[in-house]
Each structure stands twice: as structure tokens, then as C-alpha cells.
Design brief:
The chain has 409 residues and is of the alpha+beta class. The protein is built from 13 helices and 21 strands. Strand 9 and strand 10 form a beta hairpin. Helix 4 runs parallel beside helix 6. The radius of gyration is 23 Å and the shape is globular.
């Protein structure tokens, strides 16, 4: 099976796309989704977060939610809001946010290659979240949330995608958060073949965001095989694949509720065993790897880890690991950030003022700002078959839901 292939997408008719396109299902809770979809009967949130059309308080994992999702999709098809492509094709998807532009390929990626780690992973998944996506796929007979992937930039592939953006787009929508989503179709057989061959020559592609979506697609494919279903569409999962050097990773910062029984002076003294500590008059946004900002008792500090403490290891050398292993665990007593309720995580898109706010309010005692993880570091972890610490990456801008879905029949 090829690493990627074109597919006959299910997408909004162009003149209704602006009404359909919605934030990804996993960035909104039910109340937020209900509010965002108010007065928008064709918002894709009625498919991706169908509990908004059921009584308030409905469990998002209740069987009625998946049934309502399927009902809403059928209604959008019957009303001509959604259409199915006549032939398999690729799409090009450009995102623009705050002057940053990235141009990627929309394709379906091989479950078999995911299973053998040619589609490389860097995160653990949680069974409950996998179960949710499996039920959603089975209810809709479609994958609706694309997996965000990256490929090591290749000039010939990058050029094909960029050249496509010079053509009139199918869809050009600016969402309410200011992000511009522009979508083109590639249905020329020669170009399709060139793209397929280019990706087939790659050793690997990398999951950036969407580990639960890809894991659930793998489970659905296995269950179809066990039932004797010969359908091949389920052997692939919906993906958007960007050149690695166009991906935009923001910082993913940490806030902690208390000082582990220590005084401010004791914390500072212990930190100095592993870091150079400098008081700063302004919020500290680290300018390089191995540098950190710390906000404590109304004061910002710049922390630089002692170089001899940076190991030659793809996981242990990540800034999130350096901070955890040399400060958060030994000084503040948090050994498992996945389960310890004393720590929380703040995406960089919220800014450093959010860290100050949460500490100044008394909700948290101390905050740390980090330098963003690089795509090269992420790929090195994935190539080593390792797993990144939780909350290591925050990708922006987010892919929209509803621009295209992958039907499994």
C-alpha cells in the first residue's frame, strides 16, 4: 500500500463553506461549542460536537451523541450543503495566522505504515479518547478530523504545493479568530502521480498533532478486517501534511499551585544549584533553547541551565525535560505531570500575561515560560522511537474541521 494516496473527499459546496467550517472538535468544550454554533445551523460543530443539539448536560460520550452526529451529517448531505468528490484527488490547504503562512497537502495516509511506525509517533494515547473517535468514525462511516502531519521539506514537493496556490481556490475563509483557511483541489492525473511518487520515496512522515485520531483509525481498520470487510478506504486516515520547516510550534508553559512547602528564598537557592538565575524587569520570553523564564512573587527571572546538565539524548535534552528533571521534580516535588493536579499547562497563544494573571491571583504560586520545541527535536524523538513528555508542543494555527472528510465506503 502506498504511504499516501488521493481520495474522493466529502466537502462543503464552495458557496456554503464559510457556514460549515468550524474549530477542531477537541479545542472547545460542549458549552463553548454550543455558543459558537448558535445561529449557525450548518456549522460542522453539529457533526463534530453533536451533544450541542441534545439537552444540556448530555454526556459527550453518550450513544445518542454519535447517532445525532450521523443524523446531522445526512441532513447536510440531503440539503446539498455537503457534496462528495467525483474522483480521488489531493487538496492543498494553506493556513495564514499573524503573518505566518504554511502550505500543506491534504491526503489520506496509510494505516499499515502507521502500524509499522513509518508514520512516526511521539505521544502516548488515552483509551477513552481513542474510544470516542472510534465510535464517531463508525457512526459516520467517515473520518472528519484530520491528523496534522509533517514531512521533511523537499524542494520538489514544496514547489508543487506552492504552485497550486497560484490558481483560484475552492474555498477561502477567514475564521472568527482571524485565521485564513484557503483550499485548492489537485485532480490532474500527472500531478497526482508526481506527488504520490514523491511521498513514496520518503522514509517517514511525522504526526505533529492527532495521535488519538490516527490510533482510532488503526483500530477501525483492524475491526473491518476481522469482520471480513474488504473495504480499502478504512486502511487510510485523513491527514494534512506540511513541510516541517513551515510548521509553527508555540511555547507550552507551566504553572504550579504551591512551592512544595518551601519559602521563596529556599526555592531560589535550590534552583541556583542547576541554573544561572537573573532578575529581570520585564516578562521573560526565552530567546533560545535551555533558557527559561520564571515568575515568582511578582518578579520575573531568567534561568539558564548549566550546560553540563544537558544530556545527549533526544528526550532528556528537550527543554520540557530539562525543566522537569532539574527543577519541577527535585525542587517542587512533581514527578508525574500527567496525573499531578498541582501543575497546569498554558499554551503560548495565551501570552505571558496569562502566567502573571494566574500567579498574581493566588491560584498558582509559580510559573515558567519555555522556548518552543523545534520540529527537528520532535522528529528526532520520533525517529528514536521515543515518546515526548506531556504538553511539549502547541501547534498554531489549528486545522479547521469541515473543510473535507474521508468517507469509508
Amino acid at each position: 500500500m502506498p504511504l499516501i494516496k488521493p481520495f474522493a473527499g466529502l466537502r462543503p459546496v464552495p458557496e456554503r463553506a464559510e457556514e460549515v467550517v468550524a474549530p477542531p472538535y477537541d479545542v472547545l468544550n460542549s458549552a463553548e461549542a454550543r455558543e459558537r454554533a448558535a445561529g449557525r445551523p450548518w456549522s460542522f460543530l453539529h457533526i463534530s460536537k453533536a451533544e450541542i443539539d441534545l439537552p444540556e448536560g448530555t454526556d459527550p460520550y453518550d450513544p445518542s451523541v454519535y447517532a445525532k452526529s450521523a443524523e446531522n451529517m445526512q441532513k447536510m448531505l440531503q440539503e446539498g450543503i455537503l457534496m462528495r468528490e467525483e474522483k480521488p484527488c489531493y487538496y492543498v490547504y494553506r493556513l495564514i495566522m499573524d503573518g505566518h503562512s504554511q502550505v500543506g497537502l491534504v491526503a489520506v495516509a496509510s494505516v499499515a505504515d502507521y502500524d509499522i511506525n513509518r508514520v512516526r509517533k511521539h505521544e502516548f494515547t488515552r483509551p477513552a479518547k481513542e474510544d470516542d473517535r472510534v465510535r464517531q468514525i463508525e457512526a459516520l462511516n467517515a473520518q472528519t478530523g484530520p491528523v496534522l502531519l509533517a514531512y521533511k521539506s523537499q524542494a520538489d514537493m514544496d514547489a508543487i504545493l506552492e504552485e497550486t496556490t497560484k490558481q483560484p481556490p475552492l474555498v477561502d475563509v477567514t475564521a472568527d479568530d482571524g485565521v485564513q483557511h484557503t483550499f485548492w483541489k489537485i485532480d490532474d492525473d500527472a500531478t497526482i502521480e508526481k506527488i504520490s511518487a514523491g511521498f513514496e520515496g520518503m522514509n517517514a512522515i511525522y504526526i505533529a498533532d492527532g495521535h488519538h485520531r490516527s490510533a482510532s483509525a488503526s483500530r477501525v481498520a483492524k475491526s473491518h478486517k476481522m469482520s471480513g470487510d474488504g473495504d480499502q478506504n478504512c486502511d487510510y486516515f485523513l491527514s494534512v501534511i506540511y513541510p516541517h520547516n513551515q510548521m509553527n510550534i508555540l511555547d507550552y508553559n507551566r504553572v504550579i499551585k504551591d512551592l512544595n512547602g518551601l519559602s521563596k528564598d529556599e526555592v531560589l537557592e535550590k534552583i541556583k544549584a542547576s541554573f544561572t538565575v537573573t532578575e529581570e524587569s520585564e516578562a521573560v520570553k526565552p530567546g533560545k533553547a535551555t533558557e527559561f523564564g520564571m515568575y515568582l512573587d511578582g518578579q520575573w527571572y531568567r534561568l539558564n541551565i548549566n550546560p553540563e546538565l544537558v544530556p545527549n539524548d533526544p528526550v532528556a535534552s528537550l527543554d520540557v525535560s530539562l525543566l522537569a528533571n532539574n527543577l519541577i521534580e527535585p525542587v517542587l516535588g512533581i514527578s508525574d505531570p500527567r496525573t499531578d493536579e498541582r501543575i497546569d499547562f498554558v499554551g503560548g497563544i495565551r501570552g505571558l500575561s496569562e502566567l502573571e494573571k494566574r500567579v498574581d491571583s493566588g491560584e498558582m504560586a509559580i510559573a515558567f515560560s519555555l522556548y518552543p520545541t523545534s520540529m527537528e527535536a520532535l522528529m528526532a524523538v520520533a525517529d528514536a522511537g521515543e515518546v515526548m513528555p506531556p504538553k511539549s508542543t502547541w501547534f498554531e494555527p489549528k486545522l479547521a474541521d469541515g473543510l473535507v472528510s474521508h468517507v469509508l465506503d
